[in-house]
Amino acid sequence: MNKEDLEAFAREAAKTLKTEQDLNDFRAMLTKVTVEAALNA
Question: Cα-atom radius of gyration of the chain, to the nearest Å?
């Protein structure tokens, strides 16, 4: 995934984030998925 793809994904995801808790939940999920993907690579 290149920088442009990541930016497009972030923009799309940001549309659903309404509260600080939404952002915290999203960040936790993204961190979990990223770590799992890195460990399985």
Answer: 12
